[in-house]
Prior knowledge:
Blueprint: H1 2-29, H2 38-65, H3 76-99, H4 109-120, H5 128-150, H6 155-179, H7 185-203, H8 207-210, E1 214-215, E2 219-222, E3 225-228, E4 231-232, H9 235-241, H10 245-254, H11 258-262, H12 266-271
Antiparallel strand pairs: 1-4, 2-3
Amino acid sequence: MENTAVAKVGAMLALGGTALAFTLLPLIAARRCSWGTQPLLRFGGGVLLATTFLHLLPELREGLENSELGELPEILPELLMCLGFFLMYFVEELAHIMLGAEHHDPNSEKRRLCNDHEINTIWTEGTPLRAIMITVAISVHQVFEGLAVGLEGHSNQVWILTGAIAAHKSNIVSHHYTELKLLFPSVRRQYFIGTFLYQIINNHRPSYAYNLLQFKSSIHSLFTRSRPSDLYIPSHRSASFQNSFIARSVNFWNSLPIKIRHFPSLSTYKTIPISIPKTVR
Length: 281
């Protein structure tokens, strides 16, 4: 019993340390190499899924068979597992809805019509509600993970479950770190520059910036709506603005793929590799 208590305390410290380490890992790794979190998320999910079916589910079935509750339905363990799964799914979907996550096809007309509203509200994107909902979603994960570890009766089972949870947790926290506002300066910079220019093109605001720019004659039709393809600085301003922030931003905008120009959302910038010119870094 004493060894089990020590193992549970050690598991608590190990899980906390793992979460902290893998929260900082993207900050270090992304500066040295190009990598994504999706393979890590799939690996962590597979480890947790295998642990659920090979370790937790048989243990739950054995515990129910040895309980004093009398004869129970044979499908009760699987039913309880499904209820837990859908509870977690509900919490995560609620968090996505509250955060305003888009589940629409990028090629849909609905996405196009909603995009202007998204651009008009980007400056209020980092509201406290976003941080609260992400914290709630992660905290619910923590509650069930803590219960699973705390209810184990033997130290070796505690460590097995701790390893599985750590493999899953490390990938979750790494992914959420990159999803929050703690983004790398280059990603933030390209996002705000692209969004600023998009605002100028579509709304002609702010007027002082719009007057600095003109559109080339080439027009790209997309979703039955024509939008300018490239930007350029008028000839009478080229000399004085050649090395300015506006000129460098225009060059950056013209180097972007069409998809990013029409939908300059944060998720688009993170999922599609972009080589940022040194002039706007």
